[in-house]
Amino acid sequence: MLWTHSQSTPPPDGMRIIPCPGVDLGAIDMILTTGLIVDTRLDAGKLEDTLTTLIEQKFPRAGARIAFRNGAYEFHIPEKFGPHVPCVNFTVEDHPETYRADASRPTLPMDLKVPSPSLPSLSKVPDAVYQYLRSSSCPQSIEAVVESKKPMLYVHVVLFDDLTFIGVTSSHIGFDAVGTGTLLGAWSRLINGTGIDAIEGMPWDVQPFTCFNGPTRVTKQRGWFDLGILSQMMFIAYFVWRLFRDPNEYGVFIRVPKSFLAQEKHKIMEELQAKGSGEWVGSSDVLTAWWYKTALGYRVNDRTSFHLHIPVNMREKPVFAGQSTLETPYTNNAAASIAISPLPVKAFHKKSLTELALHVRRAILAYNADLEGLRDDIRWRCANPFKTHFPCPPGGEYSFQTNWRMAGFGGLDFSGAAVGEQTKEVRVVFVFPMVTSGKHYPLRGSGCMLMEDEEAVWLSQIRGEKDWDAIRHSASIAFV
């Protein structure tokens, strides 16, 4: 994939070897950062000491190096960690002042004054914030990760007197969102005084996806497209044409009050009950339907086929050996995706929120009921780790909507590492996503349910500048 190697390169001394399964390689080009903002100054020394202890004793896979040997990617886990064999790249930047004291620094999303606390609002992502999430030594591509021969995990801590930034970065080969949340949740417990022996870890040699190795009868994953050469060229041409028409893209944060979401869900459930229907929708269904109705509703006559993909956590599905769920903590990738039946874009203007939320919920229920179909999806990916398949046909439009809420980043408690006396729990008050790659990874049109606080659920979304202008002019949501 990256280089030509002899097929007889021996394993390095002092390393335990775990092959990367196909599910780890689906997003091989992505370097993913989870950026946390904690609302006080933290003790960087305690953060580093506890994280080092946690990885060395409970999550050694998190301290692995990523290697490419004999034509395959592998995790190389040191048999013994130490000063010369670290388990994490930990960097600190200290500013002995308050973040908010310097007016030139970008205003953080949770500090913005919204037009109405009870209605959704949207604000542009302040690009300057990202300088606080990664150190200059953090690799930007999978090639750089492999060549560095350093631990795959990078943690960058930036201290201010009123808050702390914690940027947790790894190649997506090593972690998905729930896996990152698993590691950070255990870290939070250790910081707050839980004994290391009481924390359940991830065995270095756990390989839950080996049961899916071998031949498979399916030719692709459900909801994806195996395109021929001509169709691939057409897919790329349509994609490039959209970039040409709207070349500048940027991300935004969207604040959706929980009271607004609960009210919309209540209206939908009342409507279903009035019709005598036994169907139901969840808050995430309503949120997903509301966002795409908001973002696409201005395209009233657009017949473009819209393909929505929603990643799902496989850990809780009884598809592993012995038809069991994945019981041990697992930080590597364990995500599949639900392909929602495509709709023409104009449907998001014409259909009601009830119809759209039900469309999402029905697809999820059908997916969850077909466990053998999920096993087939995993078998296909394990058998075809580098095969490219496409999220929509040529001329279609696609979007990925990831749910980080299940990772629990907004509930992380760092009180035990706070500097000085505190009168309240020291919590994560905001979460920033950051993705880079050595190649142009097409994220436009996609987004993430980031987190929730006491009052609202937060989304991040990426679209073209002209698209955002059209949404603004449609007056479907307030721009801050």
Helical content band: 25-40%
Strand content: 15-25%
Give the CATH class of the largest domain: Alpha Beta
CATH topology call of the largest domain: Chloramphenicol Acetyltransferase
Description:
There is one protein chain. By secondary structure, the protein is of the alpha+beta class. It folds into two domains: 174 residues, Chloramphenicol acetyltransferase-like domain (Chloramphenicol Acetyltransferase, 2-Layer Sandwich); 235 residues, Chloramphenicol acetyltransferase-like domain (Chloramphenicol Acetyltransferase, 2-Layer Sandwich). Helix content is 28%, strand content 23%. The protein is built from eleven helices and 16 strands. An eight-stranded mixed sheet has the order 11-10-12-14-15-9-6-16. A five-stranded mixed sheet has the order 5-7-8-2-13, with no helix packed on it. The longest helix is centred in the middle third of the chain and has 17 residues. InterPro entries: CAT-like_dom_sf (IPR023213).
Identify the notable features of this structure and list them briefly:
8-stranded mixed β-sheet, globular, single chain, CAT-like_dom_sf, Chloramphenicol Acetyltransferase, 11 helices
Task: Compile the SSE list and pairings.
Blueprint lengths: L14 E5 L2 H4 L5 E8 L5 H14 L7 E5 L2 E7 L10 E6 L26 E4 L17 H7 L5 E6 L4 E8 L5 H15 L37 H17 L3 E9 H17 L8 H14 L8 E9 L21 E10 L2 H4 L2 H17 L1 H13 L13 E7 L24 E9 L10 E6 L3 E9 H10 L3 E2 L1
Parallel strand pairs: 5-7, 6-16, 10-12, 12-14
Antiparallel strand pairs: 1-4, 2-8, 2-13, 3-4, 6-9, 7-8, 9-15, 10-11, 14-15
